[in-house]
Amino acid sequence: MSEAVREAAKKGRPEFRNVGIGDITSKYRMPPSAVVSILHRVSGAGLFLFLPFLLYLLQESLRSEISFAHFAGIVDNWFAKIILLGLSWAYLHHFTAGVRHLFMDNHLALDKDAAQKTARWVLIISLVLTALVALKLFGVF
To answer: Under a CB-based contact definition with an 8 Å cutoff, are residues 97 and 40 in contact?
Structure first.
């Protein structure tokens, strides 16, 4: 223990230490706007990293009837459907959070309560839309 920590303990001062990842998930509760902000960044990074895959799928679907049949064979695989569902969530969340940011850029819903409410709506809307995409992707309707 360092001298400064011992001295602070003697004087009854609070001791501050670095916060680890485990502390964030177990001790601290993030507000919905923080969750939306983090997920907005994660979804943007995911879309950027999978952009070559998405462009390949688009190219294969538009090239010819034979390549479209090949594309349909790729997308018929359950693993590809899971990846497409994840990318669909990333797009839908990134889009809805982006719309929220456009409202905030125009000085709407900036106070704490309205920001938390719009963050909850972003989470709800993106998950409902993703559920609809999942139902369509897995052939429910």
So the answer is: yes
